[in-house]
């Protein structure tokens, strides 16, 4: 077995036990039965190793690779907690309240399902599946222990560590009866989100128009997603394809292109702000014949240019940009949260 319990997953139990005083941790990583039968206690790697690759816990978009990263394949994504009948009943009431308000309660984004019992001997335990929107019977063993599981991507620090930690806090919040308003206040989201300071944001530059003779130059600007796209610079180092910015550009500067005589080759620059340490960025440019891949360190301050090769033919250009994880991380180390904001500016300047 290679399944591991991340620190923020382990932190769920003591936080719940402070409210549900009878709570006893029953398990996070899988036992022999879980390995045979599958489920969210098992990592993706252990599901595959025990011939459960088609398991329900490995079938939804948020449970697959990608968006789950290579490191995320090893994570347990469920927790079992035994409780007294009184605490079980209180937990059921808390979960049921969230269920009834699931369409507006933002905590449900982070939770897949919770199995719990209302304490009535005439009733069977219930599985509240927030992702599927279903309320079904759970197995009878959930009369003595509650169960919670997360979409795998929300236990994956390699995808988004802040999101994984918030997902753990969401599980605690729902089990312990915290109100949605108190949750939003705690997380500083919704009506409690910090008010932006500083000058008003400039309007987003519109999409580049079709050039006309009087255009001096054309500008296109983008902001890189706030997630690491690559662990290493090579294509094998991709951890989040959705965080990669792909910009097809015309082969300006090539004599056979209609814009070739009017425009120079593209001018590309990077700039950043609100970061304490330099952030690595991988830039790959295909000029129609080959890829040129370079790494840059972006600091808060003035923008700087990226080297752009001459267009080799009319299939240029393809510009691919993504955040690169800090250097020196171990292969299985969780990715830290990226800092700051990074902008990309593309200019087509007339000759």
**Global mean pLDDT:** 87
Total number of domains: 2
Strands of the largest sheet, in order across it?
1-2-6-3-4-5
Low-confidence stretches: 206-216
Write structural notes for this entry.
This protein is an alpha+beta fold. The chain has 2 domains: 7-189, no CATH class; 217-349, Jelly Rolls, CATH 2.60.120.1300. Helices cover 19% and strands 23% of the residues. The protein contains 7 helices and 14 strands. The protein has helices at residues 7-10, 12-17, 32-37, 44-49, 85-100, 157-176, 180-187; strands spanning 24-27, 78-82, 113-116, 126-129, 134-137, 145-149, 217-223, 245-248, 267-273, 279-286, 291-298, 304-306, 318-324, 341-349. Strands 1-2-6-3-4-5 form a 6-stranded antiparallel β-sheet. The chain has a 4-stranded antiparallel β-sheet with strand order 7-14-9-12, with no helix packed on it. A 4-stranded antiparallel β-sheet has the order 8-13-10-11, with no helix packed on it. The longest helix is centred in the middle third of the chain and has 20 residues, at 157-176. The protein is elongated, with a radius of gyration of 25 Å.
How do you describe this structure in short?
By secondary structure, this protein is of the alpha+beta class. It has 2 domains: 7-189, no CATH class; 217-349, Jelly Rolls, CATH 2.60.120.
